[in-house]
Amino acid sequence: MLLYENPDSGNCYKVRLLLAHLGIPYERRTLDVIDRSNRPDVLGGLNPALRVPTIVLDDGRALGESGAIIWYFGDGTRFVPDDPYLLPESGFSYSSTPRA
Questions:
Q1: What pLDDT was estimated at residue 95?
Q2: CB of 82 within 8 A of CB of 90?
Q3: What number of CA atoms fall less than 13 Å from residue 64's CA on the CB side?
Q4: 63 in helix, strand or coil?
Q5: What DSSP designation does 91 have?
Q6: Which helix (H) or strand (E) holds 39?
Q7: Looking at the DSSP assignment, which residues form a beta bridge with residue 54?
């Protein structure tokens, strides 16, 4: 797997943290969060939003957005509750917007 990310991004950190806790190996490619001029070439066919994090699975499919990536890998683990009602209490959010 290949993770397009930036070490300064909190959303990328969440993905890296979950992958580390689950022991999932992956490669990292750092993209600049300020200079986005290469994003269409690098992420254009993978993530229409051209945002990091974006992960390319071993079968070539791509997932963008930290919430989607965390849900994909965390579902069925102790990191995502079985009861959807408990998701807000777990700190899980579908958006990157912090909760009040």
A1: 53
A2: no
A3: 10
A4: strand
A5: T
A6: helix 39-43
A7: 4, 64
**To the nearest whole number, what is the mean pLDDT of the chain?**
89
The residues with which 4 forms a beta bridge, in sequence order, are 29, 54
**What is the pLDDT at residue 91?**
65
Q: Which two tokens stand for residue 99?
A: 């909760």
pLDDT confidence band for 82 (50 / 70 / 90) = confident
Going from the C-alpha of 39 to that of each of 24, 43, 67, 98, the distances in angstroms are 26, 5, 20, 25
pTM: 0.84
Cβ-defined contacts of 13-18 (< 8 Å, 24+):
14/66, 14/70, 15/53, 15/55, 15/66, 15/69, 15/70, 18/69, 18/70, 18/73, 18/74, 18/79
Confidence of residue 83 (pLDDT cuts 50, 70, 90): confident
